[in-house]
Design brief:
Layout lengths: L1 E5 L3 H13 L3 E5 L2 H10 L4 E5 L7 H10 L8 E5 L4 H10 L3 E4 L4 H15 L8 E3 L2 E4 L4 E6 L2 E5 L3 H12 L4 E2 L1 H9 L7 H16 L7 E4 L3 E4 L11
Parallel strand pairs: 1-2, 1-3, 3-4, 4-5
Antiparallel strand pairs: 6-7, 7-8, 8-9, 10-12, 11-12
The chain binds calcium ion (CA).
Calcium ion binds next to loops.
């Protein structure tokens, strides 16, 4: 999972990237807002760390710009700042940062803040187990279980269907277009046709049909797909 690091001080950037890699993420480092824009156009990261003071466009201006565009609006942003003044922090949050960290910060705190942000913004990107009704998905072991009447059975599932189901289970009750699913599940700017999504949805329904749960994955005409809690009416989605 990619994390974009926008920081012009090479030493700090290297330290951050080292710690991100250690935590299992894939850092992509750039040293200006302009380079960050180019990078984000190529591939949307899971999260961005943005330093306040940058040569050229400032960190808050970059974040403000991201918030005006549909594609980058949901991008979780953690702002890094040497400015501990409350007014500055408020300005950073007003620009659209989700959280901030004041320099110097501990790398443990940095990793903890990133985890917290990702948990809120992109729960499917964490390796935590997910439960939805009788379905339980374990991303670490890449296993899917179904429990009913006290019996648990493992369902065999392909890697793409697993990722797709992981996304659906962490975002139940919301409709996603094929294009959005491509972005979230396959990564954006991946050149896959939209109908590929239909193929994987069909396979996923095949897996769920083994336990008569295929109706939990609803086709919303003209819009896309939506996941319900298996075996429950649509209104009971949390
Ligand atoms: Ca700086």
């Amino acid at each position: 999972m990619q994390i974009l690091v926008v920081e012009d001080e090479a030493g700090i950037s290297e330290l951050i990237c080292l710690n991100l890699r250690h935590a299992g993420w894939e850092p992509v480092s750039v040293s200006s807002a302009e380079a960050a824009q180019r990078q984000v156009r190529e591939a949307l990261p899971a999260l961005a760390l943005v330093d306040w003071m940058l040569p050229g466009m400032s960190g808050p201006s970059l974040v403000r710009h991201w918030r005006t565009e549909e594609r980058t609006r949901p991008l979780p942003v953690l702002m890094l700042t040497a400015r501990a003044e409350e007014a500055d922090l408020v300005a950073g949050l007003e620009a659209g940062a989700d959280d901030y960290l004041t320099k110097p910060f501990s790398t443990r705190e940095l990793v903890a803040r990133i985890r917290a942000l990702l948990r809120r913004a992109a729960p499917q990107s964490l390796q935590e187990g997910v439960q939805l009704g009788p379905l339980r998905l374990d991303p670490g072991q890449r296993q899917l279980f179904w429990t009913a009447a006290g019996n648990t059975r493992e369902l065999r599932i392909g890697p793409s269907e697993f990722r797709l189901l992981h996304f659906f289970m962490t975002h139940p009750g919301r409709v996603y277009s094929r294009n959005q699913l491509l972005d979230h599940v396959w990564g954006d700017h991946v050149f896959i046709e939209e109908r590929t999504v239909d193929v994987h949805v069909k396979r996923l329904r095949g897996v769920l049909s083994i336990v008569q749960a295929d109706a939990a994955l609803e086709t919303v005409r003209g819009a896309g797909y939506r996941m319900h809690v298996p075996g429950m009416p649509a209104a009971s989605v949390p």
